[in-house]
Amino acid sequence: MHVDDLKLWNDRKGVFSPLKALTLVLVCLPGLWIGWRLATGTMGAKPIEAALHETGLWSVRLLLVTLAITPFRLITGLNRVILIRRMLGVSALAYLVIHLGLYVFDQKFDLWRIASEIVLRFYLTIGFVGFVMLLALGATSTDGMIRRMGALAWNRLHWLVYPAAVISYWHGALQSKIDASEHIMMAGLFLALIGVRLMRRRVALGPLPLLGLAGLAMGTTALIEVSWYALASNIPPARIFAANFMIDLQPRPALGVGLIALALPVLALLPRFMPAGRQARPQTS
């Protein structure tokens, strides 16, 4: 490996990229903050458990941001953002590896107990399956592996990112038990991103279709939350659904998804304010 390959802030031509450098700093900040809190004893009464929770959350957050890169590029035509997709994906895997390492440490490196827990506890079983999927994606994310596998086989393997994402949100929601709001919200945003990919095969990714998608994502998220808590509690489903649209209550996942997904039609307006030479190309099927 050439020394320039270790310069993560460079682009493919070996030139310094401010975008990659900024992304590298941003993905490291949560880990540094967690490490600082562990070192200073400010992580709470159960520091390892808290760090375990935080690293898991940051893994799924970064996975969602990774999946947002292609929809962002399709809507805006800003192809430069593809430079940071690999870095984001590898960062999601890195936080997941730390998450698993903290779990092993918390179990006092008792590998037999860890293996039996993974087999017997469903949320750990699916979490481990998701880990193996993302590990396979991370191990094949280099240019050398793409050349060895061939573009077709590589692309087929990397479709695993979608079931891995679903498993990640499911695992996190099961682990959260009482309040799965953030994982439900991320599941709703994940569906919105999938919607962008599906829409561009049929319609232009303009502001009005994307505004409709934002509304659809909001309603779907409300249904996900209703289904989740209907199975986990005795709360009437109608009350859960209505709470998603009550602004005076603590914001529910559907409202959060709706507000964030409104960025999609706003992004569709961005090319209109760009110089003519940099405008997005029309999206075709």
Number of domains: 2
How many strand elements?
0
- Mean pLDDT across all amino acids: 87
Order of helices and strands: HHHHHHHHHHHHH
What overall form do the CA principal axes indicate? globular
Helix content: over 70%
Give the radius of gyration: 20 Å
Q: How many strands, what sense, and barrel or not for the largest sheet? A: none
Decide which structural class fits the backbone: mainly alpha
Instruction: Please count the helical segments.
Output: 13
The percent range for strand residues is under 5%
N→C terminal distance = 39 Å
Low-pLDDT regions: 1-5, 277-285
Provide a quick synopsis of the model:
This protein is mainly alpha-helical and 285 residues long. It has helices at 18-40, 47-76, 85-106, 111-120, 122-139, 143-149, 151-157, 161-176, 181-199, 207-232, 237-243, 253-261, 263-269. The longest helix is centred in the N-terminal third of the chain and has 30 residues, at 47-76.
